[in-house]
Write a structure and sequence with these properties.
Length: about 325
């Protein structure tokens, strides 16, 4: 089985030969601008947002170069120094999201990407892995005293995030279509030995995290700590629709910031049928980092759900595992 990167190379060669590609113009220079967050403690993973310019997928017509069917190749490759970034996801023409592996040595790293056309962009000294003796230091020269703050992250704030409790405890079910939600024992779970399954017709659920009740103070929350959210989504037989929605809410439940991904399990947000999936049964991580969302955060609402395309009994919708919400101060 070829990797996504090998498939992308073969696809580009085919499109060059057939003249089907509809890519951005050659004058669109790929540029990287920033990485957020720009540091992590040694031994920890991190979900980052890469901001740039001309981060565009390659669009092409169907294999016969006829009709109105448009396919999109949005496979970006990323690296931090000589180390591959994990789960690089195209968001839009200015943003990618990726996961920094947890085995990087302390030091400062460049970040590079390769777009679907093979064009490369590099941002030097873009990310720092802090060693055990390092601190995240306030370097504002307009203040009389600098403060050293250890980079510190909470544990996972979600209950029963990976179905290991053997039931739906911790989750509030809002839609239970088909045969409903299930905690399924599986050797193919992303981690542990269970995963959450969905059925035909929409299955949706949520958890609402009361941050004050967990011991966070209003001062800590109003300082706008980083909030990292992620979940692993898997495919059963054919691509299925799924969604993950995270809302940051104030004391009155008003939404102050949110992030949504609505896609199919083939990894292509534009695909809504079974005609354009890549590999069956792959796990894909979806993730986001909230920063600079303003004061007033008191609750986090984490929602997900899926609807299968096969319309079969049992649980052939998307499967979910290892959901995570952590706060880094």
């Amino acid at each position: 089985m070829r990797t996504p990167g090998e498939k992308r190379v073969l696809l580009i060669l085919l499109l060059i030969a057939t003249g089907c590609a509809m890519a951005p113009g050659d004058d669109d220079t790929v540029v990287l601008i920033s990485v957020t967050p720009d540091h992590v403690a040694e031994g920890q993973t991190a979900q980052i947002t890469i901001e740039g310019r001309a981060l565009e997928p390659t669009m092409y017509r169907n294999a016969n170069c006829s009709g109105d069917s448009i396919e999109i190749d949005d496979v970006f490759l990323g690296a931090m120094g000589e180390n591959d970034l994990e789960s690089v996801i195209w968001i839009d023409g200015r943003h990618l999201e990726a996961t920094v592996p947890d085995d990087l040595a302390a030091g400062t790293y460049s970040v590079s990407i390769v777009d679907p056309r093979g064009r490369t962009a590099v941002l030097e000294d873009a990310f720092t892995v802090l060693g055990s003796g390092d601190t995240d230091t306030d370097t504002d020269t307009d203040t009389d005293t600098d403060t050293d703050t250890e980079f510190d992250c909470s544990g996972n704030l979600l209950d029963n995030p990976g179905a290991e409790d053997g039931d739906m405890s911790g989750w509030n079910i809002t839609e239970n279509g088909g045969d409903g939600w299930a905690s399924i024992a599986s050797a193919d779970a992303f981690e542990g030995n269970r995963r959450f399954g969905t059925s035909f017709e929409w299955c949706r659920r949520f958890q609402q995290i009361d941050l004050l009740s967990l011991g966070f103070s209003e001062e800590e929350l109003d300082a706008q700590p980083e909030i990292r959210v992620s979940e692993w989504v898997g495919e059963i037989y054919e691509p299925d629709q799924y969604e993950v929605i995270v809302e940051l809410r104030d004391v009155g439940q008003a939404v102050i910031d949110n992030w949504t991904i609505a896609a199919t399990t083939d990894g292509d947000p534009t695909c809504t049928t079974a005609d354009c999936f890549w590999d069956d049964d792959d796990w894909v991580e979806v993730s986001h980092v909230f920063t600079e969302y303003g004061e007033g955060l008191r609750y986090i609402r984490f929602s997900d759900g899926s609807d299968d395309t096969e319309w079969w009994a049992d649980w052939y919708g998307a499967v979910f595992d290892a959901a995570e919400v952590i706060i880094c101060q």
